[in-house]
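Record format v2
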Amino acid sequence: MNKTMLKIVAFGVAVIGFYMYITVYVTGLSGTGGGETAGGVTPEAGEQIFWGDGQCSTCHKIGSSGSATRGPDQEGLAERAEERAKKLGMSSGLDYMIESIVEPDKYVVDGYDKIMPKVFDPPIMLSREKILAVIAYLQTLGGEPDIDAIMKFKDKIPEASKTKVKPWVSPMEVTAEEGEQVFFDESLNVTCGKCHMVSGKGKKVGPELTGIGAIQTPEYFVESILTPSTVIVKGYETVFVVTVDGIPYNGLIKSDTEQELTLIVEESGSMEEVVIPKAEIEDMKKQEVSIMPGNISELLSVRQFYAVIAYLRSLK
Amino acid sequence: MNNYKLFLKFIKQKSIFVMLLVIALSAVLSLSLQKGVLLTAVHAEEAGVELPAFEEGAASGEQQQTAEGTSAAGAEGEAKAEEEEEGELEPVQYRAFFGLDSRVIVWIVSELHLMFAAFVLGVPIFAVIVEIVGFKGGDIKYDKMAKEFTKLLSAAFATTASLGGLLAFSLFGLYPEFMGHMTNVFAPTMYVYALMFFGEAFTLYGYYYSWDILKGTSAKKWFHISLGVLLNLFGTGLMFLTNSWATYMMGPSGVSMKTGRLLSLSEAFYNELWMPVNIHRLIANVCFGGFIVGAYAAVKFLGAKTKEEKAHYDWMGYVGNFIGIGALIPLPFAGYWLGREIYSASPVMGNIMMGGAFSWTFIIQAILIGMLFIGANYYLWLGMGRIKGSERYTGYIKYLNVIIFMCFAVWLTPHNLPLSGEERAMIGEQYHPFSKYFGVMAAKNAVVNLIILSTFFSFLIYRRSNKGTMVAFSEQGKVGKIGVLSGLGFCLMMLVSYAISLNFVELDAQIKGYVTPLIFALYIQSLVVCLAVFLTFKNKGKLGQFILFGVTTCIAVLYFWYYGFQVMQKANLVLRYLSVTQVSIVMSCLIMNAVIDIFMFRKAKVVGEITWGKMPVRSQYALLLLCIVIVILMGLMGFIRSGLRMDWHVYGLLQDTSQWAYTPTLSFMGRVVGLIVALFLGLVAFVFWLANLGDKKVKTEAE
């Protein structure tokens, strides 16, 4: 390597070295890792979260602190919150603040867009305690913090999901058309269409599934099919009835009048209506068990199972 | 036979290295077998990323094979039996490469691949432009230079492809779950990518090897140029394709944010950040290509032994720098657009970028861009030394220096400082009461525009350095008039159409009032552009240029600096319109002034020729500095773009739960980027050396 090349290499190393020095210098300047942290539901902790993890200062400033203007200036918020709560018929300013965080689109201050994210959802994912701390801090802006009052509202704030968000991918290539056939195929051991209705097709013993793909996740479908009693849709809870003759029935209430109770019960894989005169009922209890068969994993093949999931996902 | 002997001789000489290599390979193989790495890898991929969450093992690869016609319970039983035999199979989320930090491996490989890709995409744009210039102007040295760089491309292309392969294997190997998701969303585009790669390879080699064959007639040359254009289309297409994958990771769309299910491939592909990144990278690649050419010329210049060689490489360095600066000027505008769209895609990510953890990286970016602008200006000023007559303009340089340095002081000011309670109590608020006004976007936009205007002014005085008495514009014939009127038409179309469109923006009545000054500013600028053209037609073009520069600075820099604060405080939604207005006004000034200057000095008397080769050695180091800095800048911006996702593979959808999900410190980033830059520059030097080996042999034989 000649002298010129050595000089060029030395120059290159010097420039890269200068850059690396700058990054070390700026790291020190930025104070990474320094500073004390406050915890718990306190205004101090809330202030740190407001300017830090909570990303609130992305959009809000507080008087002369901060310069973000995407959202309203929070100076004097506590006073304004009381006024708005009265206007909106809410119990208190605190109620208004909590609603603004839990349902940010419900009331939007004039002149601002609906851009506020739900801070307990990804990507911010603030814990309930941190949100409460921020509220405590916001109460200090034009008012006094009332931690006891805040804690009474804690259940209104959803817990941030700690589980990893993972996209669901079908383990095999199946089509929704294939699933539709399985869903209504009466030659199989189990026929979904005998109890569920989709766009006017099928029977309405269980919940109607028209448009279900738009509001439920694949994980929910998997769970509902394999362990149907885990979540029972409101209105489809089963009852356990014992007659004076000691005959037990477990089924869905189809109708309930003064004279008689009509149940839909499963008998040998098919759904039958049973009418029981009220006078013959010895005991009746609400059940935590779904009427849907719990052994579908034995009645469908893996392929048929995933085909049904694909069909349900397509119902939008 | 000779080759065989040479090979034996090589083995004999390098026997220690060969033995070490064999030992190393054996060690890797035995370790792999011992740990069952190979076996696990195969099964893990079968179990893969597609396991649903409900039941472990229910969707293993084996079970999928036997699923048809088998009951779920039966399949479960089989799976359990197999589990007993082989142990439990878990879906593989992450793997490590011999315990190394997977993220750093992917970081280094992807950056190197991207840098080579930028070279392979940027230099052909440069080569075709230069070839066209040479062909139209009849100057053979342009043609030679274009060919010289295409030769370098061939070697760089193979390196890019190899690094691309290494990157793909690293990603699939180390991040299988994430890549499973990406494949699930983008599989069809991956085939297109592979096919386009063929197109790129064929046109590149066709373009290079047909250079001498397609010479002689105009038709042949145009055909050759068309091949070059096709090569660029394939290259740009490839870049656009991969950009959609990268931008999807930052702002996913077209998928269900709860399940990750693909809803629309076109939406996932054409996500919010796709086009801003495309434009930004396209311009950056041209800039990168220009500065790499400049550095190549500088190295050759410094090693040149004859006056002719020095003159040739001085000229080459000038052309490289010219193209580099040409692309550098619009780059901040494209960068601003990208930043704005990042804010639109996710205000949280936007805040992380400009007001949070990454805001400090922009201080470093500002230093680097400062070095680029100062380096480019410095090179221009030194270049004036080889032009007789330039003494008339050297007095302006000190003022330009002051302006540029002051602008950087503002640009370097951070928005906020992490303060302790004590410090905050001393200051009285979260942000510094005075400096915070220099840290906000309004101030930064203003000074960036001023830097651009100053650099453009530098370029104008450079190009008129050896120009003497001008021929009156009225005597220049139709070409000048048509040229200037075309420039005027373009500028008016840009300014007036935007002013009209601002009348129809949908905003609340109380906010809409803040748009009115922008409309006025656009109309005022339109009038000033017309006035500059009118004065040019009246043979007072210099006065026209002066007024245009002055008014543009007053509106786009001074007034919008002040008005930007007003808008931020009272009508934040208007800020985006203000920025576009600012850019339009500055662009109109640059375009109109350049057009006027070209035609005004078209037939001017030449005071003195440019003495190519008469450049001080330090000017070549300025070119080297520009090249190194742009490579560092690419490394830094790559870190920022990727790091903004924080601990998300796909922002808000697929979380990174690996042990490397934390954001590294700036100093660690500095070391990694420094290493990448050193590796890249070393590899480029090696590739250039390889590509020139043939020439050395020819030269030696000729001697």
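The radius of gyration of chain A is 30 Å.
The first strand of chain A starts at residue 197 and ends at 198.
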